[in-house]
Design goal:
The structure holds two protein chains of two kinds.
Chain A: E1 5-7, E2 10-13, E3 19-24, E4 31-38, E5 42-50, E6 53-57, E7 64-68, E8 74-78, E9 87-94, E10 104-105, E11 109-113
Chain B: E1 3-6, E2 11-14, E3 19-21, E4 23-26, E5 32-38, E6 44-50, E7 56-59, E8 62-65, E9 75-77, E10 86-96, E11 99-104, E12 108-113
Parallel strand pairs in B: 2-12
Antiparallel strand pairs in B: 1-4, 3-9, 5-6, 5-10, 7-8, 8-9, 10-11, 10-12
The chains are: A mainly beta, B mainly beta.
Amino acid sequence: DSGVTQTPKHLITATGQRVTLRCSPRSGDLSVYWYQQSLDQGLQFLIQYYNGEERAKGNILERFSAQQFPDLHSELNLSSLELGDSALYFCASSAGTGIVNTIYFGEGSWLTVV
Amino acid sequence: GDSVTQMEGPVTLSEEAFLTINCTYTATGYPSLFWYVQYPGEGLQLLLKATKADDKGSNKGFEATYRKETTSFHLEKGSVQVSDSAVYFCALRVTQGGSEKLVFGKGTKLTVNP
């Protein structure tokens, strides 16, 4: 158990809908990351937050947004869903940034868009 | 840009065989390097890491040495077990200012037969 908690574990929704994925980082970790894992694209970095502030943005679509709250949990919002958004979404956390900090991953949220 | 290339799978071995999964990287500066493992139906787990040239990371019988001269971080295990069947991801950490992300290879699926 990495200590990173993601909910829901599985989600099935229709095209055009909006969903929210939630992540609780490891206790004390200030940095949260979101990744998307799909068969064709592999593991893609989406976004990083550090103590509530956006720090890095990767291949995140404009239909997707994220935030980190004062209690350090994070949410990834996916809207106007398309079939191609079906993927495993990982949240990860670390104490901070830099060499000594290990990034720990949650078990992921499986999203299926039908 | 920063990237990771790892050998295409799948790899199928018999129990007690020797394992090598090749990984090379392209990066500016001196990144930290990682191997993560994803067991069936589970999230990503950190297997081992190395933070500077000539460092050797090791865990659960797996080893990888950070080779700056060949920009490589090959994963090896002397005697694999059925329980090692999983997908293995090589990754490098890119840190810029206060931002940080992991860049992953496409993953190599390993199946170990009894």
